[in-house]
Design brief:
Length: about 60
């Protein structure tokens, strides 16, 4: 019977050590829209900077 207690204790300690990571709360519609907007803005900014650099190198 003592062995059962030690294995239970070991199992509890292992469960504590290997707890699943805290999951993030699902994003709200507003947060999803903001995230999408920011990604699109960054993509467009990168494309604009690339076009400007290309045009600048051609003019020089």
């Amino acid at each position: 019977m003592l062995r059962d207690h030690s294995s239970d204790r070991a199992r509890r300690e292992a469960d504590k050590a290997f707890k699943p990571a805290k999951t993030q709360k699902p994003m709200t519609d507003y947060a999803k829209d903001q995230h999408t907007f920011n990604q699109n803005r960054e993509r467009l900014k990168a494309e604009r900077l690339a076009r400007e650099a290309k045009a600048k190198s051609r003019s020089e």
